[in-house]
What does this fold into?
Amino acid sequence: MPKLLNLRPDTANSTVHKEQNKQQKRRCQQVRQILTKTNLEKDVAAINVIGTNKQNQNLSKARQLLRTSSVSLVVVRGTYIWQRSGRGIRPLYDLVTEEEHNLKGGALADIVIGKAAALLILYAGLTSAYARVMSRPAYNLLVHNNVDVVPDVIVEGILNRDQTGPCPMESLTTNLTIPGQAYRLIGQMLQKWRNQ
It folds into this structure.
């Protein structure tokens, strides 16, 4: 049978710790009383649960629609659903341009999300994003800006269509951190390609 050791704390230290614990408990009780009086504790908890559930529901629905339809991206915000098809960043850019003020708080499911797409996500105010493939810079940027992110695969970078180098939009936005600036530059680049 193992020996039980009788460990007695130093009484001087023990008294100090007890007093500190009492003070900390008193502070916690005071805060709880204030929150309970204003009923904020319950309200804050309820808001957090509701917010999380809505985000989860939006993202889950967007992922399901992306899986079961032939579109390249889906955005869901409550009962509103936007779907787009196309290659590269253009479908997301066009959607953000057309519905800029309606997307805030929505969830995006896309096939590929690179840094350029991540900046558009921030510009549109989307709060969660799923991608089958997501670049490391996009992942870091979105997480840093409190966007809920669910990638299937994280890659170091997004390649161009020929797989011979980086995607031009990724090169364009490598050093950008301001979503509005990225939105303008992406639009200019897309317009230039349209005119060629």
User: Anything to note?
Assistant: The chain has one domain: 41-195. Strands lie at 73-77, 80-84, 107-113, 128-135, 148-155. The domain at 41-195 is CATH 3.40.140.30 (Cytidine Deaminase; domain 2). The first helix runs from residue 11 to 38.
